[in-house]
User: What shape does this take?
Amino acid sequence: MPTQHSRVKARLMISPAVLLLLGWMLIPLGLTVYFSLLRYNLLMPGMEQWTGLTNYRYFLTDPAFFDALRNTLVLVVGVLAITVIGGVLLALLLDQPIWGQGIVRVLVIAPFFIMPTVSALVWKNMFMNPVSGLFAHAAKGLGLEPFDFLAHAPLFSIILMVSWQWLPFATLILLTALQSLDSEQLEASEMDGANYVNRFFFIVLPHLARAITVVILIQTIFLLSIFAEILVTTTGGPGTATTNLTFLIYAQSLLHFDVGGGAAGGIIAIILANIVAIFLMRMIGKNLDA
Amino acid sequence: MGQIRLNEVSKSFGDVEVIRPLDLEISDGEFVVFVGPSGCGKSTLLRLIAGLEDVTSGRIEIDGADATAVPPAKRRLAMVFQSYALYPHMSVRKNIAFPLRMAGLGKDEQMRKVEAAAKTLNLTEYLDRRPRQLSGGQRQRVAIGRAIVRDPTAFLFDEPLSNLDAALRVNMRLEISELHQNLETTMVYVTHDQVEAMTMAEKIVVLQEGVIEQVGSPMELYSAPRNRFVAGFIGSPTMNFANGEKAAGHGAHSIGIRPEHLSISTTDGAWRGTVGVAEHLGSDTYLYVHLADGQGTFTVRAGGEYGASHGDTVYLTPDPAKIHRFDAAGLRIE
Ligand SMILES: Nc1ncnc2c1ncn2[C@@H]1O[C@H](COP(=O)(O)OP(=O)(O)O)[C@@H](O)[C@H]1O
Ligand SMILES: [Mg+2]
Assistant: This one.
């Protein structure tokens, strides 16, 4: 047990680190709040002036904001659905004793090590390109009209790319969880008359609940801020079809040179992200206590 | 009904033959115990009967019908695992009801059977708890409850008591025996503990390295072990063995004599020795006597009040009717 004395000393000794971290967080946050209250346009340097909440009003009433909100939601939920369901199925598959298991596992993990920009460019130019892409060739081979993914289903295309990147992460975590399932439990349920489907829903899936929660929480944090894939493929278009909140803030600040508006968007994004986090923690966090 | 017959059943994992081809018959309502040292294939044999492993060769019949290729769920056997294998995310009630639910029984019917099983096993208060909120003995009872509700033709137990402490083990031993008396269902019970085997079994199957060494009632195994392995494995403390001169005197390659069949005297007897350790249990005293001829150490059971201590010289005399004689291959000589 630490004594009163040693506890005071301990606090004293970690305080520099805490102060540093606090500054690290508070200074940029404070500056962002400050900028968001200014009329600050990069085309008119030196003309910054106080405008109060005007930036917020403009950002929140911009129709692009609602599009971005919807796109962010679709992107996050879509990728989560694909990676969790796909991850569970892949984990079940990789858990089987198959020939060349080691190599297959490495191959499955590989996409996770590829930079987002690179993978997005590969998808865009080598797979989805309506003239020279592999999908176009495949379609022509089958006698079908090539489909221009990024023009006609841009958001879906981005969801596909991001899912491909995150599937390994989900698979890896779920596979580890699957391997920790006591085989006697499965055998007991088999003797109790559960067929494969029942075993999956009554034994395997509840066992995976915690791992799925972890996957959802971690991925949500990263998926809310998807940016590189959008920048190198669709740059938010066509129109605002693939503009998510992150990209909208970027566009506001650096394409429209409106730093004040961008900062206001940033603050709104922080608030929304926190609402999502609280919501998620409330909803599925109880899985983690057990 | 709960009659099981194994015919030339064998099992190999890769090149290793874990169960050599063996025959075994288990009659309806019998309490059979598989006993043997760790790794001898007891669990494997039980899992073959359960259908959790496929036989490499041979035939398994349950109630006269060929069950060799029948999947585990269809064999109407219930198994209690060593780890209990309870479903951690389900309440006790749901755990016990699980086999009924899988069988497609109605909700009311399920609950009625669960309540009945819980009552038999003193689990009524715990029905809404999760397995991890229960003690070892309670978990054990839930596992048994899950087996009972299915109304199986036979119960299979794989070392069900090995995770319990000594006092609880004695209790559960009695409870399982009592359950057998009440249900009159066939039970196949695996253990490495010969005391459990002796106290619970109607029929003991002694296994060693995948081979059945002997099948018989506890007293048959105790009084007429077929070979040295069974003689040494059954009975506690273990039998004393002697070779050479002492055995030759009885016309055998080796002889065995149980600690309770040796009489002890401080003045005269067949074999002289000095007391090494004396264990006083209250009811009995076990003396570990180093023989004077240097032919090893004999264990002797003396009365509870027997006052001997380290270094005392004593004489041991075997009860001639209780000497077991074995030939060079270790087989019993009648
Ligand atoms: N799935 C398996 N694969 C390979 N060897 C196994 C397997 N299961 C058991 N064995 C081997 O079979 C032998 C008997 O095991 P087991 O039946 O569990 O012994 P017991 O229950 O008597 O301790 C052991 O040597 C064990 O290593
Ligand atoms: Mg075993």
Remarks:
- Residues B 13, 18, 36, 38-44 surround adenosine-5'-diphosphate (ligand 1) (CB under 6 Å).
- Chain A has one domain: 54-287.
